[in-house]
Amino acid sequence: MIEFDGIRFNEVVSQQLMACLTEFDSANRNLTHDQVPNRVPRPVFMAAVAEVNGLPFIPKVAEFCEAALLENCDPAVLTREGFTPLCQNNGTILIALANPWSQLPDEYMALRFPEAKFDKVVTVSSEISRAIERVSGASGPNRSELEQIEVEDDDDKIKDFDVTADYEEPIARLAATILSTATKLRASDIHFKVEKDVFYYCFRVDGDLGEKVEIPMKLKDRIDAFFLSLMKLPTEIRNTHPGISGRFTISYFHRPIDIRFERHRTYRGYHTTMRLLDKSHINVTLGKGSLAFDEETLFELYRVMAVPAGIIVMSGPTGSGKSTTLNAMLRELNRPEVNILTLENPVEDEIPGVTHCDLKSPSEFKPMISSFMRSDPDIILMGEVRDLESAELAVEAAVTGHKVLTTIHTPRASQIIERFEQLGIERWKIAQTLKAACAQRLLKVLCPHCKQKLDGIDEKKRRIFNLGDEWADRVVYEANKEGCPECRHSGYSGRSAILEIIPITPKTSDELSKGALTPYELEVRVQEEGKLPNLRKSGLKALAEGRTDLAALSKVIDMTYTDE
Ligand SMILES: [Zn+2]
Prior knowledge:
Layout: E1 3-4, E2 7-8, H1 11-24, H2 36-39, H3 42-52, H4 67-71, H5 75-81, E3 83-89, E4 92-97, H6 104-112, E5 117-122, H7 125-135, H8 143-148, E6 150-151, H9 163-167, H10 170-184, E7 187-194, E8 199-205, E9 208-209, E10 213-215, H11 220-230, H12 235-240, E11 243-252, E12 255-265, E13 270-278, H13 279-282, H14 295-305, E14 310-315, H15 322-333, E15 340-344, E16 355-358, H16 365-374, E17 379-382, H17 388-399, E18 403-408, H18 415-422, H19 427-433, E19 434-446, E20 452-454, H20 459-464, E21 476-478, E22 492-503, H21 506-514, H22 519-529, H23 535-544, H24 550-556
Parallel strand pairs: 4-5, 14-18, 14-19, 15-16, 15-17, 17-18
Antiparallel strand pairs: 1-2, 3-4, 6-11, 7-8, 7-13, 8-9, 8-10, 11-12, 12-13, 19-22, 20-21
Bound molecules: zinc ion (ZN).
Zinc ion binds at residues 447, 449-450, 483-484, 486-487.
C-alpha cells in the first residue's frame, strides 16, 4: 500500500494510483509502493490523485486565493484538513484540496456558504498552507496562526509538552511568534543575543542577517528557560555548561520543522542560535527549485554520479547549500539494490531506504565508519572532511571500491586537492581517489515582480568585476531597494544554486600524481576548454538572463579576477 504525506491509501486506490503514475511515465511501472514517496515528485503524485478522482490538478493556487472567502473560515480547520476556498464565480466556489476522499470540506463549506455550489480542484498541500498564509496577513502571525505552532513529540524527549496550556503563557506566545515569523520568512537561522544594554533577536534570510528586534532585557532568562524546557534538558546543565546543543521540532501549518539549537555563554548572557531545518526546502530534487541547474550542469552532475567508485567532493563556504545538493544526489542514487549509509552531524534529510547515522561527537567518527565498512555499503555520505582522520577514511573507502560523497571547506573546486594535502594526505593518493571536485554557491534570485531594468553596466563596475564591453549596453536587472509585498520588501525571492564541476579523469589523475599538473593549472585548463560549468560562467548567465543582479553575484563569487 502506498503511503504519501501521512495518508495511507488502501490496496484498490494504490493500484489505481500506480496505473496513473505509469501512464504519466512508463519508468514508474517498476516502482514498488514503498518507493513511491521517495521517487515520485509531490506534484506528479498529486496529479495522479486528481486523475483517480476525476478532478483537475492545479499545481499553483495560492495566488488565486480570495481573502474575503477565507474570512468566513477558520484557518486552523483549513490547514488541519488540507483544503481552502479559492475564488467565487456566479455562486460557485472553487475549493482546492489535497485529500479528495475526505468528506469534511463539503460539509464544512456547505455550513459556511449555504447558498453556494462547489467545484473542486486538487493541489499540493504546501500550496494550501501557502494560500492560507498569504491571505492571513503579512503583518505577523495572528492568534490562530500562533495556535498552529505546536511542539511535536520528538523521540521521547518532549512527550508531555502541553501545547494549549502553554499558549496562555506570554513567553510561549512570544516564542511561537518568533518561530512562526522565521518560518514564514524562510529564515535559515534565528539569533538571540544579549549585549550590554539590549537583548534582541534577528533572522538570517537568504544568507543575510536582518533587522534586530529588541525584547525587554528582563525576559532573557525566561526565554532561555522556555527553549531549554522544550528540549527537556535537565536543570543542572543549564547553569553549569558553557555550551548547550539540542534540537526540537515545531509544527507550522502541519509541516514539521526541526530546530537545531546551540547556545553558548557570553559575557553578558547567552548567544543562542537556532537553525531551522525546514524539510520542505531540504527535500529538493536535482533540476528543480533551488537546484534548477541548467542542462549542461545537470548532465555533468549525472556523469559524476555514474562513477562507480571514488570520492565526490562538494566545496564551498558555510551556508552554500553543499549538503542539500549531496542529499539530492543521494536521492537520485537511491535504488533498492544499493546499500547507502550516511554519517552526518546532524542528519538533515531522512531518505527512505537509506541508513542514516547521527554523529554525536568527533570521537565517534572512526568507530562508526569502521563498523560501516563491515556492513557492506556501496555508497557512503560523509558529512564533512575536517581532519586527517576523516580524510584518510574517505580515501580508504574509495580505494576499497566505494563511492564516497562528502563536503569540504574551500572556496574553489581546485583547492580541494590542496586541502586534502594540508590535512596530511599525499597528493598521489587524493589524485587517484578523487573523481570530481565541485564547488557550489547560492545566488539570490531577483523578485520577478519588482526587479528593475538597467540598460547596461557602467564602466567602473565593468572594470572592477572584469566584465567585457558587451555588458555596456546589455540589459540587466537589479533588485528594487523598496521591494514589494510579494518579496516581503527585500527585492529578492529565494536563492538558486550555481555549480562548478571539475571531473578528475584518469589522464588528469596521472598528471596530478606525477606533479606534472597543479590543481590550479587544471582549473585553468578546464576553463579554457569552456565545456564544463563553472561558478563565474553560471553566475554571469544568471545575470544576463535577469535572474540575479551584480550585487548578489559579486557577494558570493570573487569577480575581481579572471583567468580567461
Ligand atoms: Zn518584489
